[in-house]
């Protein structure tokens, strides 16, 4: 065999090795499942989705039912079980309680990221946690509840109060759209006791804004430290929808969590 042929074969093999290495790297990236919270919906993640997709991450912005912590977590667990490869869960607000209660039996969840989110301990509920520290002003901004036939109540934020309460660092035009498309949470879900949280077993990270009016920053710092967060990021003057107003910073923490915990 001539040296020219040997050189060609070496070049071809090197090219194949690089191709397979690149494919393996891409396949190793976890699917990022984004779980919105109460009074929000999937499009609140749009900026984060775009950032992650630009970096090659598969992303699912889940439609969180907002009916019950246990039932919503069971639904999320089904999604995780039917997702190929490792998964990284990201929860906003009430969504933090949902990702905390996901089933860890599959071993597919690589990391948790809490975005202005609740990280309850077993037996705690969202209503109690949100009032444990001063600064939350959600209560007076809620609209009259919608009474459901099953005896439960659906809760919304009054649209004219939504901007200042929920999304003060988002434009008035965008906040008006968010107010009109907000999804209600049941009153019972906010008072439902959490199960044993998976953050005790899975690496977790946290990011929140210092101007959050739904969950006081002190409460989120307390929960993140208690959960043993690998990294806590505070965004100065950011509102409760920090993922909408600061998508680059939120996406950066998600990528950091994915990279640090890759299997």
Overview of this structure, please?
With 263 residues, the protein is α/β, with parallel strands linked by helices. It has one domain (3-134, 190-260): Alpha/Beta hydrolase fold, catalytic domain (Rossmann fold), CATH 3.40.50. Helix content is 42%, strand content 16%. It is built from eleven helices and nine strands. It has helices at 3-28, 46-54, 69-81, 94-100, 126-131, 159-166, 172-181, 187-190, 217-226, 242-245, 247-260; strands at 31-35, 59-62, 87-93, 109-117, 146-147, 153-155, 185-186, 204-209, 232-235. The protein has a six-stranded parallel β-sheet, with helices on both faces. Helix 6 (159-166) packs across helix 7. The radius of gyration is 21 Å and the shape is globular. It starts with a helix and ends with a helix. 41% of the residues are buried. The model is unreliable at 3-26 (pLDDT under 50).
Low-confidence stretches: 3-26
Structural class: alpha/beta
Total DSSP helices:
11
Through-space gap between termini: 42 Å
The largest sheet has its strands arranged as 2-1-3-4-8-9
- The helix-strand sequence is HEHEHEHEHEEHHEHEHEHH
Q: Which CATH architecture is right?
A: 3-Layer(aba) Sandwich
CATH class: Alpha Beta
Tell me the major beta sheet.
6 strands, parallel
- Strand count: 9
**How many domains in all?**
1
The proportion of residues forming helix, as a percent range, comes to 40-55%
| CATH topology heading | Rossmann fold
Strand content: 15-25%
Q: Can you give the mean pLDDT? A: 92
What is the CATH superfamily? Alpha/Beta hydrolase fold, catalytic domain
Radius of gyration, CA atoms, in whole angstroms: 21 Å
Coarse shape: globular
